[in-house]
Fold:
Amino acid sequence: MRQFDVVVVGAGPNGLTAAARLATAGYSVCVFENANEIGGGTRTDTSVWPGFRLDHCSSVHPFGAASPAFRALALTERGLEFVHAPIALAHPLGGERAAVLDRDPQRTVASLGPDGRRWKRRFDVIAGDWEKLVAATFAPVVRVPPHPFALARFGVQGLRPAIKVASSFDGGAARALFAGLAAHSAVPLERLQTSGAGLMLGAAAGVVGWPVARGGSQAIADTLVRVIEEHSGTVVTGHRVTSLSELPRARATLFDVSPRILSDICGEELDARYRRRLLSFRHGAGAFKVDYALREPIPWASPDCRLAGTLHLGGTMLEIAAAEAAVAAGQVAQRPFVLVGQPSVADPTRAPTGMHTAWAYCHVPQGIDLRERRSELLTNLEAQIERFAPGFAEVVEARRVLGPAELEAGNPNLHGGDFSGGASDGMQLLFRPTGRPSFDPYRTPIEGVYLCSASTPPGPGVHGMCGWNAAGSVLRHSLR
Structure:
């Protein structure tokens, strides 16, 4: 095999971003992908039902639209298009009522009644600091922050339990809306640090929106590959890597894989202490996901829900908190918090003319075999949809059910169906992947070997910043 400056293992958004950054810097790059198609968490299936485009994992991209890496690589100038639904997010409250999160902050305020002004004051501060916060939070924790005062203002709220921040609102609409945002962390809302996800996601709606990629999330991966190939890089699919010895010689090797898979590939070549820390890495709640082909739009009772790209179905703040607590305790929530996406509302290319596509998922306990409970899980999930969209079952043409085992089989990085690349709580939230402070969490004890997956800072989301930051480490060390 020929020698390269850089080899990347894994063609997910982080591996491809790392490869694109290094290729544009003038280095020879080769990417190896285990699957027969690129993309990892940004793959789009087109073969399930004729004319339908189904995102395998990630589908809505507020952090992609905000990503400094994607901006630096000029992805939108190279053809990637983010498109928006008329409403970013709706949280139905029963009947025709819904709280909404919109790119127009005034529309959000109007949906929250007396709490609208308080919501606006809280999120105006974050929106005003947005660029500073992105620079400060999309990077490792252990460093001199570029904007310490903005980070401190955010940290005062972001480190608090989400249930406390949600309870600071007087009305049920604002409480439920914030609880749903924070529940994206898949961590019980009573725990410290859970407000951070809710605050960033809430502010993103008014700054960059909650868009989808036209044509499917695969468009993000395809655009990154174009960058790599424009600079003479190579991407090889259907190539499984099981050991370092199988790879061509390179000055640096980056792995867009989970800590457990990195440990398996590197084996005894890893320092024993570092390997133990990789193997102790905790994975978060799994996902139970259903893709839908729909004859017509979902019959939401609330008119706002029919215009939303994303929906949070969970009822009140206390209902959402109870559902996430049950999952953390190893139980299946009878009334789960359900996230629903309607990509065809923003992007008509996702379904044949006159039809629609949607997806829905809920959190399930990690490490539990749920294959014999698929029917129960599906019933619970669809009961939440029917609760706010009576008659939903009548518009379903077909469904594809993906439990944790199927999700992991489709992408080995999704251990137990964990979409987040690892539990987002405690010391692990701050100090991925080892749970220990590090000035450079991407470097491993093996000279020239780096980890760049979502299990490194800043963590989950299709933003490519894990790969971008790891590539920066490569430039400072192996390629200096």
Observations:
- Residues 83-115+159-211+285-410 form a domain with the Polyamine Oxidase; Chain A, domain 2 fold (CATH 3.90.660).
